[in-house]
Amino acid sequence: MEQYVIKKALNNNVVIAEKNNNEFVLVGKAIGFNSRKGDKISQDRIESIFVKQGEGEENFNKVLQNISIEIVGLSEEIISLCEKELAVKLSEAIHVSLPDHINFAITRINQGVRIENPFLHELMALYPKEYDLARRALKMINERLSVNLPEDEIGFIAMHIKAAVNQEKVSAALTFTKKIGSVMDLILKLLKKNLDKNSIEYIRTITHINFMLQRVVNKKTIKNYLLDNIKKEMYNEYDLAIKIAFKIENLFSVKIPEDEIGYIALHLRRLSEI
User: Fold this and answer.
1) 72-87, pLDDT tens digit by residue?
2) How far apart are CA 103 and CA 83, in angstroms?
3) For 55-77, how does the pLDDT look when each residue is reduced to its tens digit (9 = 90+)?
């Protein structure tokens, strides 16, 4: 069986290799340790493979030219970790966008620019798996590159991961998160509440809205057998729920059925009793 031939090691665990006149980025434990150009790597040592081809190859080569190999190599390890934990192949774009983002974040920190993510709590609630992986990624970045990127970066990295999972642009994940944030702002305004964004109640409400949107988009809304009682006994909350439903409809171009409005009212009652 023909083996991969190393062209360049990015770090101890990531190399650029060639096989059948094609270039690959290979990730595997210690496959770059003490390696030299021309060394061969067997398939059983490889944990993940990124094929450099087409437009992706051109963009990745630009990354290699403009960003340190330490950042590029670590980014590939993070991508490999995410693919393994999520059991999915991430989009080709993340091989360019993630190292570019990390490099930009480090540059800003070194220039004394403060990094803030106003949607950190929303991202934590919307994308818990991606957020946890981003937390681990930030720890790897700070330890391996001897930097001190703030916790806010977890949210930005999580968006890159989520976008790569969905095969979409990072801006799409950001836009969705902003819309959810504006819905939550309206809820707190209508309830006249200043709810802790770290609270289980805040996270539970975001999670409900997210799942409700998925149901509406997929036309799988659930029957609310308590709807009549909710309208009678929680008429204040139901009235507010209608206003929130209008907001959601305008933001996401969907139609929220009465059954789902009833469930929103239940969440509002729970929030109002805190």
Assistant:
1) 999 999 999 999 999 9
2) 21
3) 667 888 888 899 999 999 999 99
**43, 1 in Cβ contact below 8 A?**
yes
Asked whether 126 and 181 are in contact (CB, 8 A), the reply is no
Question: In residues, how long is the chain?
Answer: 274
- Residues lower than pLDDT 70 in the chain: 1-2, 53-56
Task: Give the whole-number percent of the chain exceeding pLDDT 90.
Answer: 75
